[in-house]
User: Fold these one by one.
Assistant:
Number 1:
Amino acid sequence: METLSIFINEQVVYEYDRDTHMDEQKLVFLDNMDADMERGIKIQGELITSPDKQQRAKFVVMNLIKALQQENNAIISASCAYLVNRHPTLLEVHANDHDDSVKIEFIDG
């Protein structure tokens, strides 16, 4: 099984099976996520009116971290599905507390 590993402060907190099947309904949901983000997103208080692919991924990771804290499996699954679908070579996400913000790093394979 090939996974997407989510690290928070250097600890693996979640692993998502990259081979999880995405039916048409799930793919439409991911497209809707993109459409929502096209209208603008906020990352650490900063409004980004035309987010690029990397900014969208960071926004999704921030929501993923919140979902992991709240044990919201639907958002966890949707966030991971988005990341592996839109970033097919992504293997690891590292989120680390850094002063008053969270530093996010993406590791591709």
Note: The two ends are 15 Å apart (CA to CA).
Number 2:
Amino acid sequence: MRRRRGGVGLLGVAAVAGVAHHAGTKSAQAQAQEQAQNQEIADLQAQQAAAPPAYAPPAAPAAPAAPAAAPATDLTSQIEQLAALHTAGVLSDEEFAAGKAKLLGG
């Protein structure tokens, strides 16, 4: 009597090989499709870089002129705001000093 050897057998090997072939083919197709998309994106970016802009945004409006003389209470409140920002840690010592000097005009 012949005894069968334990194992997958010819049909099992063929099935595994078929699945592996199918997976490899799909992977190659996906890579080819991704490369084609990357090339299209690169081509579009090159076209956009070479073409002049179709729309130029309007220039920013000029800043309004500062009021001539502000009342003293306004100056005090602005310095107090700077001090509060400095105390909260938003402004450094240098930024606080520069802001105060700017408000005081010097």
Note: The chain has a mean pLDDT of 77.
